Amino acid sequence: MTTPRRVPARLASVSRLVSTARLLSSTGLLSSIGAAGVLAWVAIGMMAPHDAGAQNTARVDTRFAGLQWTFARIRYDGSKLPGLSGCDTYDECWTIDYPAAEQNLSRRVKTVTSIQVNEPVVVSIDDPALFTNPWVYLVEPGTWIPKDSEIEILREFLLRGGTLTFDDFHGPIEWANLERQVKRIFPERAIVDLPPEHPIFHCFYKIDEYPQTPGLGSFLAGRTWEKGGFVARLRAIEDDGGRAMVLINWNTDMGDGWEWSNAADYPGYVRFTAQAYRMQINEIVYSLTH
Fold this sequence. Notes:
Elements: H1 9-27, H2 29-47, E1 68-69, E2 72-75, H3 100-112, E3 116-117, E4 121-124, E5 135-139, H4 148-159, E6 163-167, H5 171-185, E7 192-193, H6 216-220, E8 233-238, E9 244-250, H7 254-259, H8 270-289
Parallel strand pairs: 1-3, 2-4, 2-5, 5-6, 6-9
Antiparallel strand pairs: 7-8, 8-9
């Protein structure tokens, strides 16, 4: 496995600012504030600390001492689908929110739990190192079309106890693609909605309903949804014992919630950041204990 070059914190901050500028453009807000406004906004953002939201102190819960967890991001080749723009020229799909999302989420898990948290990694599906990471994360699966060889690997990985988490895809077109791909992995297994009484909603935090975390671009446009994905769902594929081994976070963008967790920059976004952390920590704890 080739380890990606670590991005310096200041450059990562600039990268996130550029990403948001593109989101502003896509929502039509960029033209309303003008180029001069964007330049001033970027300059201010470069001076602001971007990790504050992930560093808030909290009482450590000791129930899960002895467990280990690593944020393992899946590297994959993206594909453009009819009716969708796909990922833009600045990013490969798998890099969305990288590296701030995993850095911030890892710090939060370390802060509020007694789980041993390792440094985040990036791994390809065909890399043998996949099997040393029982929890893996795949972002933007609305454009993901895995190779046949990768399908076989993922099936083995999941049946041996691994957990695959999908995040940040929206609407019926992207859902149709994701459904096609996971049915290639498990054609005989149903995709089910996880109800509020499922253990995943109370294994760490008590969460009454599945939250919708908007991407920052949607938030700045005054809405919580995108691409026609109005209602957020947590869906899953279960193994023979009822363990949710594939977690499908649909019509939500938790990765943006972790990436942009700086209250000083976006004070109105704080509540979405908080719910993104809480929901994903529950998903992590569930995957480590079931």
